[in-house]
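Researcher: Next sequence.
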Amino acid sequence: MILKNLLQPKKPRKIFCVSMQRSGTTSVGRFFQDHGIPWAGWPADRDNNWSRSVHEGDLETVFNSPDFKRARGYEDSPWFMPGLFKILHHRFPGSKFILLTRDPDAWFKSMKSHRNSGGFILGTHKGHSMTYRRESDYYDLLDKGELKGLEPYPDMRRRTQKDREKMSLDGLDEHYKKIYQIHNREVEDFFLRNDPDALFHGSLDDADKWMKIGRFLGVNVNPTYDSHENITPK
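Model: Next structure:
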């Protein structure tokens, strides 16, 4: 029995999907749930306002929250925020990371077609601007008084369209696609240099991605399994 246990691959301490939003994050969350991995996704961020804590540099509030402690697999915000993957790697040694990427044009189209955003930003004005390097736009709006009455980090459970309609995605295709590509490259470069075995980098369009992720995590995946949430309209 002892020998058998030694031969079995160790399960990773935690699993972080650090893919940018609109890159299969919700589908990864479904994968976690379908394979018995305690999971935290957008609902946990919404209920705990983890994104605000990360942007304010208060990471221990996130790590000490019951929802974080309960979970082993994490996806969506705030895990794709700039540079956070480096902190997670050092803070939780032995963890695994998943990065799914897609064609930048298809990604930006998905950003603009997000059903709840209507072509405006995803998330809050301040949080979105920090993630997508639009801080100058944010502070210009703030100085002009156009964000008067709007909280920098509104309660995500009661957020309205008004909380994001001051910042549009129109005409910023190249800016966003560049940020998207830089994030993906930074993640890949960091783990290539520091811990290549800790990262799975795959294409969202790869039909075999779930089998590959299963092998990466030591999870048995049915060959017919598929998970495709939040499909971008044609």
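Model: Residues 19 and 99 are 5 Å apart (CA to CA). Confidence is low (pLDDT under 50) at residues 1-8.
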